[in-house]
Amino acid sequence: MPVFADGQPPIHISDAVVSKVGELLAEENDPNLRLRIFVTGGGCSGFQYGFSFDDTAKEDDLEVARGAIKVLVDAMSLQYLAGAEIDYEDSLEGSRFVIRNPNATSTCGCGSSFSV
Question: Is the pTM above the cut of 0.85?
């Protein structure tokens, strides 16, 4: 697990994410659900981001609490997401989670895949 000497969290969760995930969790009506963010192979740039709800943390998960929500990231994904900012955008182009990843050397046009 990455450790940040200046006390910064390994990933940054925006207020917009807290608000949107809070709304989605309220609809699910399950207080045990957490947002899971993960990286898998694939996509047009080599790796792609994924989001899901999960009610169980695994042994190697990092759990980040922000406001009323909790976010899970597994150890393999964390090596690619360390220092990333997770945001939520609602625009004319649509609504989506956005990851600003300092570890990515390139990204695709849709922003959902990247390479390192």
Answer: no
108 is in an annotated binding site: yes
Q: What is the rounded CA–CA span in Å between residue 19 and residue 23?
A: 6
Taking residue 99's Cβ as centre, other Cβ atoms within 10 Å add up to: 20
3-state secondary structure 41-84: EECCCEEEEEEEEECCCCCCCEEEEECCEEEEECHHHHHHHCCC
* pLDDT one-digit tens code per residue, 52-109: 999 999 999 999 999 999 999 999 999 999 999 999 999 888 899 989 988 887 676 5
SS3 27: helix
44 is in an annotated binding site: yes
